[in-house]
Each structure stands twice: as C-alpha cells, then as structure tokens.
Design goal:
There is one protein chain. By secondary structure, the chain is an alpha+beta fold. The protein has one domain: NADH Oxidase. The protein contains ten helices and four strands, in the order ααβαααβαααβαβα.
C-alpha cells in the first residue's frame, strides 16, 4: 500500500452514530478484531480484551443503566442552564443501543508491582501503557471497519454507569473498561469536521 492510500483511509474515516439493521457477520468482526490485535502494546503484553455484543436485550439493559445514571445526575443539578446543556448532550451517551454490534474494549489493570512503583501518581494506567495500548488497537479497528464499508464510533459517555456496566457484563476484576465502540453499516453519509491546520498543533523544538 502506498502512503497516499493509507492516508486516504485515515482521512475518510468518520464517526457514525446512525446504523442500518443490516447484520454484521462474524467473519467481518474477526477481520476488525484481527486488525486490533496487531497494534503495538506495552512490552507486547497485549493486555486487552474485546467483548462483542449483538444481543439486543443486553444492549437494552446497558442503555437503561446509562439512562438511569444520567437521570440521577440531572436530578441533582440546580442550574437550569447546566441541566439543559447536559440533557441535550446525553443523547450521545445512549445511541449505542441501536448499533448492530457493540464492542466493549477492556484493558488489564496495572500489576501490583507497577502500582507500588507509581504510587505517587494518579495516572498509573497511563504510565503502565495498558490504556494507551488498547487505544491503539481501537484505532486499527476503526480504520479496518471503515475500509470494510462499515461505520463506527467510540463512546466514553456510557462509562458514567461504569460499575453497572462491569456487573452487567460480568467483567473480571483484572480488567478495566476503556470505552465502547458502536459498529455497523452507516444509515446516512457522514461528513468530515474541519481539522485544525498542522501549524496550529505542532511545535518544532530543535
């Protein structure tokens, strides 16, 4: 593949929030996961796991857990301005329910030794590299998803209901949830948001 071909895939990828009912085959899903597993990882530990959820009942339970948490937060708000802003934004937390496939990305918690060595920081999972590793895997997966004609979107908003999610999905204690990735065939065309110019995001230090 030429560099321009790869750059074209990267530039053309979009976040998709509306999907058709078309089923995503297991074969296609394996291609997506296969792209993810070849991402770099900290000391090649590959400390990730991906839950592939097609079950509508489970997605509905997850949706309810997030909605209930959102309502709890909204009920505690005293500012009407903040309430309206939050209410408008939370639609982005729950649209995953209508995606044909929901991928829950997990990463392993830092070891006891790592936690001891890094006890003076609150960002152990970042320094240990596990969260960064699974994030790189997700980028591979999103690019593969796009190249196969599907759409996807990464969601972290649902993690408002983090503990409920872990319970519903019966996630082992050694894993943390990184995010959710909704995937399926796009129901509408998405357009690329404007990107900052390169000179606005770099500083060359010589």
């Amino acid at each position: 593949m030429l560099p321009d071909d790869l750059l074209s895939i990267i530039k053309d990828r979009r976040s998709t929030r509306k999907f058709t009912d078309k089923e995503v085959s297991d074969e296609v899903l394996m291609q997506i996961i296969d792209a993810g597993r070849f991402a770099p990882s900290n000391t090649n530990r590959q400390g990730w796991k991906f839950l592939l959820i097609k079950n509508d009942d489970l997605k509905e339970q997850m949706h309810k857990a997030v909605s209930d948490k959102v309502d709890e937060i909204l009920d505690s708000m005293k500012s009407k301005v903040r309430y309206r802003a939050m209410r408008a934004y939370t639609k982005y937390f729950t649209f995953f329910k209508d995606a044909p496939v929901l991928i829950v990305a997990l990463f392993t918690r830092p070891s006891v030794v790592a936690e001891l060595l890094m006890k003076d920081t609150k960002r152990v999972e970042m320094i240990s590299g596990e969260l960064i590793s699974v994030s790189m895997a997700l980028q591979n997966m999103q690019l593969m998803t796009h190249s196969l004609g599907l759409g996807s979107c990464i969601l972290t908003g649902p993690l408002l209901a983090y503990e409920s999610m872990k319970t519903l999905l019966d996630i082992e204690d050694k894993y943390e949830i990184c995010c959710l990735m909704a995937a399926g065939y796009p129901a509408e065309e998405s357009f690329s948001p404007k990107r900052k110019d390169i000179d606005k995001i770099i500083e060359i230090i010589k």
